[in-house]
Amino acid sequence: MASIHNAVLDLKRLDLLANGNSSIHRLDARAKVLVTLIFTICVVSNDRYELTALFPFFIFPVAMISLANLPPLFIMKKIALLCPFVVAVGIFNPVFDRVIILQLGSIGISGGWISFASIMARSTLTVGAAFILVASTGFTAVCQALEGLGMPKVFAVQLLFLYRYIFVLTEESGRASRARELRSCGKKGQGIHSFGSLVGHLLLRTWQRAERIHMAMLARGFTGAFHASRQSRFGIPEIRFVLAWSALFIFLRFQNASQLLGSLVTGLFP
Amino acid sequence: MTTPVLELHEVSFTYPGGVTALDGFSAGITRGRRTAVLGRNGSGKTTLFSLLNGLKRPQKGVIKLNGEPLRYDRQGLLKLRQAVGMVFQDPDSQLFSACIYEDISFGPLNLGLPEAEIRNRVDKALTQMKLTDVANRPTHALSFGQKKRACIAGVLAMQPHVLILDEPFAGLDPVMAKEFMVVLDQLHQDGTSLIIATHDLDLAYAWADDVIILQDGHLLTQGKASEQLVLPSVHNELGAAPLVAELGRVLALTGTDVYGNGYHPRTGTELVQALIHQSRQEIDP
C-alpha cells in the first residue's frame, strides 16, 4: 500500500520538478528529446567490453542536473530502483564469459565482469537521462515533442492517456488495498482468493471508468480525431543545444576520451 | 412568455438487460432559468442528462432543442454538444489530458475553431474558474476542487447555451461550494440556462427557479421550486423537505405566517428577515 502511494508521490514530484524555470526547462521539449535520443544511441551502441569509454558520458547527466537545478539524490534513488532489474539481466555474464581480458596487477578480470559493469553503466546513463528529461520537461511535453518529431499521433495520445490514468488507477488500487487491509485484522486477508477478486474488481472499475471517460469526451464533441493544441518554438538556443551536445556525444562515441586523457597524462608525466 | 430551450416528449429509455430508466417521460427546460433535477438514486437523472446531451438516444419519444427535434448524425450531435454542455460528477472521468490547459482546449478543438479563438476561450475559461496559475500543472497534481473547476472550464470554453451539471457540489467544502455558486450565478446572469442534479433539497429550494422531480423514470412533478418543493407528495418521494420550507410551515401552524404577501423565503437569512419584518408589523401595524 505504502509503496503504491510512494510511487505515485515520486511521479508527482517528477512533474512538479518539470515546472521549474531554469535555462534547461525553458528549452523546447523537442530539443531535449532529440539530445536524449542521440545520447542514448551513442551510449548503448558502445561495444559490450567498453567500460572506460562510457565514463565521459556522465558529463551529460551531471551538467543537466546542475543546469536544471534538479535534486541529484532524488534522481540517483530513482535510478537505483532499476538496479535489481539490470543486475538480473547481466548477472550471468561473469558465469558464462570467463575469459580474462584485463589484468590488474595479479588479479585477472574476465570479460563477463567487464560486460556486466558496462551494462550497469549504460543503464545508469540512459535511465538517468530519461529521468532528467521528464524532470526538466514534463511527460506531456515529452509526448508532444515525440509527436512533433514524427511519432504517430495515436501513440502519443495513448502514452498521455496511460500517464494520466496511471495516477487514477494507482489511487483506486490504493483505496481497494486499504479497504482490504482494514478488514483483514493484520492478517493477509483471504490470500489469493481475496487478491483475485480485488484485481477482478479493479479491472471492472477500470472498464467502467473507460466508458465514462469516453462519454465525457463525446460530450465535448469528440468524433474520433485528436487535434493538436500547442505550438512551441525551436529557435537558436535549441539549435545550439542540440548541435553542441550531439557533437560531443558523437566525438565520445568514436573516440575513447578516457584513453586519450590517460595517454595525455602518461605522455606528460612518463 | 418564456420558451423551452429543451423539451422531452414521451421519452423512454431502457438499458440493455431490461432496466427501464425513463418511461414516457415528458418535461421542459425553460430558457435562461436555473433548473434543479431531483429524484432518488436510480430514478433516471443521469440517463435524462445523457439524453439531453445526445450521449444516449431515446428508444421512444422526441427530444427538442430550441423547438427542433435532435439530429443524431455527426453534424447534428456536434451542434447539440456545442449548445448543451455537460459536467460529470466525478472529475477524474472528465479530465483525461495530462494538464488542464490541454483538457480545456479539447472541446474547442473538436469544434474546429481557429487557433486564436481557442486560445481566447481557454484563457477566458481559466480566468473565470480561477485556474490561470495552475494551467500547465499536471492534472493529477490538482486538488479535488481544482479538478472540479477544471471540468467546468472545459465545458465553458465551448460556450454552451445550456449547462448541465451532475451533482456539482458533491465533495466540495462549504467555501468552495459558495465560490462555485457565485460562478453559477454569473453564468445565469449571462443568460446560460443551468440544469443541476442534486440530492440537496435546501440547495434546490434556495437556488433553483424550477424543479423537475423524477420518480422511477416518470415525471412526478415539474414547476417553480418554491411551489413544488413544499408539496407533501414531493417530501414523501424524496424522504425530506427543505429546512426553510419546513420551518415556515411550523411557524404558520403557530400563527406566524412568513408567507404573507406571497413572499417565499428560500434561505435561512431570508426567513429571519421575513420574521423580523413580521414582528415589526405586529409592533407597529
Q: Compute the number of structural domains of chain B.
A: 2
Q: What global shape of chain A is seen?
A: globular
DSSP strand tally of chain A? 2
Q: Report the total helices of chain B.
A: 12
Main pleated sheet of chain A: 2 strands, antiparallel
Low-confidence stretches of chain B: none
Strand content of chain B: 15-25%
The CATH H-level homologous superfamily of the largest domain in chain B: P-loop containing nucleotide triphosphate hydrolases
Number of individual domains of chain A: 2
* Largest sheet geometry of chain B: 6 strands, mixed
Give the CATH architecture of the largest domain in chain B: 3-Layer(aba) Sandwich
The separation of the N and C termini of chain B measures 38 Å
Rounded to an integer in angstroms, the radius of gyration calculated over CA atoms of chain A is 23 Å
| Overall helicity of chain A | over 70%
Strand order of the largest sheet of chain A: 1-2
Structural class, judged by helices and strands of chain B? alpha/beta
Series of secondary-structure elements of chain A, N-terminal to C-terminal = HHHHHHHEEHHHHHH
- State the distance separating the first and last CA atoms of chain A: 60 Å
